[in-house]
TrEMBL record:
Gene Ontology molecular functions: rRNA binding; structural constituent of ribosome; zinc ion binding
Name of the protein described by the UniProt record: Ribosomal protein L37
Region (Disordered): 73-95
One GO location term (cellular component): ribosome
Annotated family: Belongs to the eukaryotic ribosomal protein eL37 family.
GO biological process: translation
One Pfam family hit: Ribosomal_L37e
Keyword list, A-Z: Metal-binding, Ribonucleoprotein, Ribosomal protein, RNA-binding, rRNA-binding, Zinc, Zinc-finger
Role played: Component of the large ribosomal subunit. The ribosome is a large ribonucleoprotein complex responsible for the synthesis of proteins in the cell.
Length: 95
């Protein structure tokens, strides 16, 4: 058996398929584990030493942040709730 052209002709099967969680083609069919996000593990796959760019791409602040983006403003006002603002007094213009 040679290690060149003939061997490459037998590479027809796909090892990875779409991952349900991250949507990338990194879910290993035999091992049943995603190489990108670590699915089916409960926590996302993430390592500190390498893959810093990946951590930046999917870290906090990359999505909508529908809750967190309002927290600084609410903290400034002491997290008050159920308070109606005072009515604005308009100045009348005399001619």
């Amino acid at each position: 058996m040679t290690k060149g052209t003939q061997s490459f002709g037998k590479r027809q099967t796909k090892t990875h398929t779409l991952c349900r969680r991250c949507g990338r083609v990194t879910f290993h069919k035999q091992n049943k584990v995603c190489g990108s996000c670590g699915y089916p593990a409960a926590r996302l796959r993430r390592y500190d030493g390498w893959g810093r760019k990946t951590a930046r791409r999917r870290g906090q602040g990359t999505g909508r942040m529908s809750y967190l983006k309002n927290v600084p403003r609410r903290a400034k006002n002491g997290f008050r709730t159920g308070v109606t603002p005072r009515p604005k007094v308009r100045k009348t213009i005399t001619k």
